[in-house]
Prior knowledge:
- By secondary structure, this protein is α/β, with parallel strands linked by helices.
- It has helices at residues 2-26, 30-42, 59-66, 79-88, 126-136, 154-176, 181-195, 198-204, and strands at residues 49-53, 71-76, 96-98, 111-117, 137-148, 209-215, 220-226.
- A seven-stranded mixed sheet has the order 3-2-1-4-5-7-6, sandwiched between helices.
- Strand 6 and strand 7 (220-226) form a beta hairpin.
- The longest helix is centred in the N-terminal third of the chain and has 25 residues, at 2-26.
Amino acid sequence: xxxxxxxxxxxxxxxxYRYDFLNHFLSAGVDVYWRKKAxxxxxxxxxxxxxxxxxxTGDFAIEAKKIGVKKIYGADFSFNMLTLFxxxxxxxxxxxxxxAAEKLPLKKETVTNITVAFGVxxxxxxxxxxxxxxxxxxxxxKATVLxxxxxxxxxxxxVYRAYFKxxxxxxxxxxxxxxxxxxxxxxxxxxxxxxxxxVKLFYAAGFSSVTRTDLTFGLVQVVIAEK
Length: 227
């Protein structure tokens, strides 16, 4: 477990300076739509208090700010990612915390919402993290996860696999100069999709209602769990 924690932190520290560009470039900009759609499905209350876990450089939190969420905090295991988030948005300075999702240093029932975009598959213990989410959320609070998935359609799955295995790693390495990160990404997505059921894990953590919505032919999933 410790090896994965170290690997993930070092990897994202290394690619942080090119992370935003690669996200938008490698997804042809569709990642922006995915974030907006996930936030729309969440239906934030007017008094929402949001903790964006695995926040990276802040794209998910920034979109939440645009739709009216006023109280936002960020958490990530990568110091370099948090540093870049602070540089992008002065309103998050002092509200960013370096931490693992499994060990949220929050009092019980502190926030109304927790979001995670493309970060759950990097957790070293997903159920432990979801237990921490449950504890930190207020009653009727929601955890929203946006994550990659493998399409059910055989043809789309074939194209998706080819892109992830042959194109994405090459382009990612060329731009980020990191040999490991964009090989890890396709490997982690396929392994994650075949072994992890987020809906079941949320229920196992005690959440009372869990919904899953597939976007863009099933390339990504939005899972929303309510306490």
